[in-house]
Design brief:
By secondary structure, the chain is mainly alpha-helical. The chain is built from 14 helices and no strands.
């Protein structure tokens, strides 16, 4: 009996261990398949946007093919993914591609080749991120990346509350048929940039730069963002998470909520804002646009160097209108006049008008000669 009981116990535990091994293996295989499926879906989400952005670089036939590919891919994505999932993952991918990765790459360049980087910084070596302590630099990197992810999370929570709790439409429109690039998407992007600029300026000036004794938000902003005297690209997202939401995320999201932009317009706006932050916080004196980005970068640097005494807007237009530019700092009008003088735009315009007038005169003279020759030929034939 004892041997039989021992045998039964061994058989039981053997079967138990076999079942456990099977369940663990099955769980591992199912988890791997699920993870692979999610990664594949993440890789397909940027394809419509990338194909749409590639359209202007091809000819007419290629443009038709690109548009057809874009439309087919977009319809497939919208049909197979939840709209909220599509919105959030697309937003996160765009921020990573257009802000996080370039900012980390520039940070690596500044750290690995400081002598070369300092030569193209507007304030030289003083503007290098390596001037910070290693602990402070790690903190800036962590908080900045966290704020980027946190803003996407808050966006998802807001949309979830709108659609699932309040049972109203989502803030961002997701449809199978994308809007026409002209004029719908162009107007949405322009509305978004203008309204976002207004909201950012007034929130930044009146909320985050109010009296520190009267506003906890102002104290947070001063203790976090303005602990840096010379920012760099990644530091554009370095602030208290609440302050970051107010200045960087809320202006664009509230504008989108009011107008209910299409998700593709939201993608484009997110990409533009991400690139804007990357360039104007970089501290480099060599930028793609000398008429706009260079002036924005100088005003941003002055805002931090003076501890927030002015230059609250991004483009500088509202600072010029309301007189809140930093003392002694060039405003947007000065930048434009300098660019006009440097490029001699008036002379170019005069030359273009002169060439156009000369072309019209030549066409007119050739037309008169051809008509007179035709009349003489008809007279000879009649004679």
């Amino acid at each position: 009996m004892a041997l039989q009981a021992l045998r039964d116990e061994l058989v039981y535990y053997y079967g138990y261990t076999q079942g456990r091994a099977f369940s663990v293996g099955d769980l591992f295989s199912r988890t791997s398949a699920k993870l692979l499926s999610q990664v594949s879906s993440l890789m397909t989400i940027p394809l419509p946007l990338l194909s749409f952005l590639a359209v202007p670089f091809f000819g007419s036939s290629s443009t038709t093919v690109s548009l057809a590919f874009f439309l087919l891919t977009w319809v497939t994505l919208v049909s197979t993914h939840d709209p909220l999932y599509l919105e959030l993952i697309g937003t996160l991918i765009i921020k990573i591609i257009f802000f996080v990765l370039p900012s980390l790459a520039v940070l690596g360049f500044d750290s690995l080749i400081p002598s070369l980087s300092a030569s193209i910084k507007s304030r030289g070596a003083a503007q290098l991120p390596t001037q910070l302590s290693s602990r402070k630099l790690r903190n800036v990197i962590f908080v900045s990346v966290f704020n980027v992810a946190f803003s996407v999370l808050v966006q998802g929570l807001c949309d979830f509350v709108l659609t699932e709790v309040l049972n109203i439409r989502s803030a961002i429109r997701v449809s199978k048929i994308p809007p026409a690039p002209w004029p719908t998407m162009v107007k949405e992007v322009l509305y978004g940039l203008v309204c976002r600029g207004f909201l950012h300026y007034f929130i930044h000036r009146n909320v985050l730069h109010a009296s520190p004794r009267d506003s906890v938000l102002s104290r947070w902003h001063a203790d976090w963002a303005h602990s840096l005297k010379h920012p760099f690209s990644l530091a554009s997202a370095y602030d208290h998470p609440v302050c970051h939401l107010l200045t960087d995320w809320a202006p664009l999201y509230l504008t989108t909520l009011f107008f209910r932009f299409h998700v593709l317009s939201w993608y484009i706006l997110t990409a533009i804002v991400s690139l804007e932050q990357f360039f104007i916080y970089s501290g480099y004196s060599v930028l793609p646009s000398q008429i706009l980005l260079a002036g924005m970068a100088k005003r941003t640097d002055s805002h931090y160097a003076t501890g927030g005494k002015g230059n609250y807007g991004r483009w500088g237009v509202l600072d010029w209108i309301f007189g809140t530019s930093c003392p002694g700092d060039a405003d947007v009008v000065d930048d434009f006049q300098e660019e006009v003088g440097r490029r001699d735009i008036k002379q170019h315009a005069s030359n273009m008008i002169g060439r156009a007038g000369e072309t019209l005169r030549k066409d007119y003279d050739s037309g008169r000669r051809s008509s007179s020759q035709g009349r003489r030929r008809s007279k000879r034939q009649a004679a």
